[in-house]
Amino acid sequence: MSDPQNTQGTPGADEEADTASGGTPDNPDELLEEETTDDEGRPLENPSGG
Questions:
Q1: In this structure, what DSSP letter does residue 28 have?
Q2: Burial (0-12, 13-18, 19+ Cβ within 10 Å), 49
Q3: pLDDT mean across residues, the chain
């Protein structure tokens, strides 16, 4: 039986941990910086036009 109060703790004996999300990147700010700026730190152009 699930414990609705235990939303961030460890799973019970008859439960499995929720691993579907895979967790967060080690350094999300660094990852975001790499994906949205060029070598000189300028924002990349949006090829989708959005």
A1: H
A2: exposed
A3: 66
